[in-house]
Design brief:
The structure is a single chain. By secondary structure, the protein is α/β, with parallel strands linked by helices. It has one domain: NagB/RpiA/CoA transferase-like (Rossmann fold), CATH 3.40.50.10420. The chain has five helices and twelve strands. The strands form three sheets. It has a seven-stranded mixed sheet. Strands 8-7-10 form a three-stranded mixed sheet, with helices on one face. The chain has a two-stranded antiparallel ribbon with strand order 4-5. A hairpin with a 4-residue loop joins strand 7 and strand 8. The longest helix is centred in the first third of the chain and has 16 residues.
Length: 184
């Protein structure tokens, strides 16, 4: 069921035009930037979008003006958090996703907010990613950080199968709403 759901949502996401992705992403940006956890955070960890993901490039560039921005860098099958000063100082990393050229490490406890990619999210904050567990491992290292999933509204479903190593997000921001995740 998990794989079927993942494939179905990914197919739907991949069918979006570039214009639709940018239009929906702009609404997601507005919803995110108006949230209290975003406004009050000093250090935000973004993901650099690729393919049909919520487009984060402009969000990152805008946030660089008044926040410390951190991006993931993959090393030894794990995510390292790296501060960036300039969005232009990125290179294609593992899987072709842009990441910082140099690693400027930051203590995990100093990351106020982590923005999380995913293919499918549920109302309890569980997510289905690309299946390598990189984000679950990393999110386990930042227990005090607020975790927010960025997704298109059709990527949010009522319930997905969860596994013991899954680390849920606290909120999901879509172009239509903000989902406050509740874990019953």
């Amino acid at each position: 069921m998990k794989n079927q759901l993942k494939e179905s949502i990914l197919q739907k996401r991949n069918s979006l035009s570039k214009e639709e992705i940018l239009e929906k992403s702009e609404k997601i940006r507005n919803n995110l930037f108006n949230l209290k956890p975003y406004k009050s955070s000093k250090t935000v960890m973004f993901f650099v979008s690729f393919n049909s993901e919520v487009h984060t490039h402009e969000m990152i560039e805008e946030s660089l003006k008044n926040k410390t921005v951190v991006l993931p860098k993959v090393a030894q099958h794990e995510i390292e958090a790296s501060v960036i000063i300039d969005f232009d100082n990125l290179i294609p990393g593992k899987f072709g996703i842009s990441e910082p050229i140099e690693t400027m490490k930051i203590a995990h406890k100093n990351i106020d907010l982590v923005l999380v990619p995913g293919i499918v999210f549920d109302r309890e904050g569980h997510r289905i990613g690309y299946g390598l567990g990189y984000y679950d491992k990393f999110l386990g290292k930042v227990p005090k950080s607020i975790k927010i999933g960025l997704a298109f509204d059709f990527q949010v479903v009522d319930k997905i199968p969860k596994e013991t190593h899954d680390v849920p997000v606290d909120m999901i921001v879509t172009e239509k709403r903000v989902v406050e995740c509740s874990r019953n």
